[in-house]
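Practice problem 4.
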């Protein structure tokens, strides 16, 4: 039931084949108040063939259509149920964001600019980008609804260690190999501000809070904020739980009603005051005033000098691990001697910067600032591909196991919902 990205060439091929095979949009099936058109069924079948890299000429399309029609019916049954469920809501903004991500992904995958994509669409299908997005809108909305149904019913699903191990034992042989990967270790040293700097920051935020309590406008007072969005009235937009990485910040924001302002609270970034403008779809629209708590310059120099020395003298992985145990301020990293495991090229770049991809195994990077800390990384090994293992890829495999479990449970639910929906197969 997933919509996957297609290259422009593949999409154009599918559209042309659909045009030839379409029975003037004859009805393949009726599900509740919805219909599945012949052209929709053909499109879905050809999309699945494209995913498997199989040519339509190599298979019996009519036979596959009968198989894939049942999948489309399942999808429509799920949508019929979701439309009745008041907990499942999709906003126009969510659809627009998903459409933009989809189009941006197509451009990135095909290395096209927006102008080049427009040109390709006009050449192949006499269609503008806005017309293309409008055609995609319905499918995107349906996909978002399906995702929300799955999230609503299975977001709290917790699998035990034995569940993940059973999943791995069952699916190990069918799991794809991981692509180009880098094995990395990390050493982090958190910077600690002096008591005087901390006190100065607290006095600033306390003075701002007094003005707010006296009736001063929140947006006006964001001119004193040291946050990244201060010039925009401290506007952070809509945030969801788990999206910021700062639990205390989210707890403060989600505890407020629209129009309310928080007390002063602290995160590792500094002292905050937040105001909630709106709440919808389990998200809150937040503004903030932030006064940072920064370390003294000599503390920064000391930490960078120490990390430079480690990078120069920690020749072996064992040397680096000893340095982690001795100097790292992150207890979790210390417990695993800095081991971050195997990371994909993209994960490694996101963690340690894009330059990590050009460094040979055995290299220790120079200090890099991350939030209120400085970090260095050691490239332990590189491979072009590898098998997934429970030891190195536990979190990924646990997530995959959860997805498979959720899919199986959703199939059971759809089978149950089918009994209460009118279904008429016409093809």
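Answer key:
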């Amino acid at each position: 039931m997933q919509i996957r990205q297609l290259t422009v060439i593949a999409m154009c091929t599918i559209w042309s084949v659909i045009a030839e095979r379409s029975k003037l949009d004859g009805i393949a099936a009726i599900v509740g108040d919805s219909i599945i058109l012949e052209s929709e069924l053909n499109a879905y079948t050809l999309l699945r063939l494209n995913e498997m890299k199989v040519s339509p000429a190599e298979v019996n399309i009519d036979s596959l259509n009968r198989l894939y029609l049942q999948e489309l019916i399942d999808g429509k049954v799920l949508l019929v149920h979701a439309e009745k469920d008041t907990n499942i809501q999709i906003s126009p903004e969510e659809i627009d964001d998903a459409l933009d991500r989809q189009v941006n992904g197509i451009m990135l995958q095909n290395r096209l600019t927006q102008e080049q994509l427009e040109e390709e669409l006009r050449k192949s299908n006499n269609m503008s980008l806005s017309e293309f997005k409008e055609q995609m809108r319905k499918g995107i909305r349906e996909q978002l609804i399906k995702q929300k149904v799955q999230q609503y019913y299975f977001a709290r699903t917790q699998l035990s260690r034995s569940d993940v191990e059973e999943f791995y034992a069952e699916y190990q042989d069918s799991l794809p190999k991981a692509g180009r990967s880098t094995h990395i270790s990390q050493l982090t040293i958190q910077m600690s501000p002096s008591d005087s700097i901390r006190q100065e920051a607290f006095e600033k935020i306390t003075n701002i809070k007094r003005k707010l309590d006296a009736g001063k406008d929140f947006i006006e007072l964001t001119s004193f904020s040291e946050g990244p969005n201060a010039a925009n009235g401290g506007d952070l937009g809509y945030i969801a739980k788990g999206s910021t990485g700062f639990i205390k910040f989210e707890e403060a924001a989600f505890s407020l009603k629209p129009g309310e302002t928080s007390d002063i609270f602290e995160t590792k970034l500094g002292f905050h005051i937040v105001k909630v403008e709106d709440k919808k779809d389990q998200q809150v629209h937040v503004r903030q005033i932030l006064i940072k708590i920064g370390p003294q310059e000599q503390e920064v120099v000391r930490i960078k000098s120490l990390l430079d020395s480690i990078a120069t003298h920690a020749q072996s992985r064992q040397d680096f691990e000893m340095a982690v145990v001795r100097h790292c301020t992150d207890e979790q990293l210390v417990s695993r001697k800095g081991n971050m495991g195997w990371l994909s090229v993209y994960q490694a770049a996101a963690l340690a910067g894009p330059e990590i991809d050009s460094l040979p195994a055995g290299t220790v990077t120079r200090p890099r600032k991350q939030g209120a800390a400085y970090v260095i990384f050691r490239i332990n090994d590189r491979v072009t591909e590898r098998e997934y293992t429970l030891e190195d890829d536990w979190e990924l495999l646990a997530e995959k196991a959860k997805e498979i479990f959720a899919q199986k449970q959703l199939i059971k639910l759809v089978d149950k919902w089918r009994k209460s929906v009118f279904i008429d197969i016409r093809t």
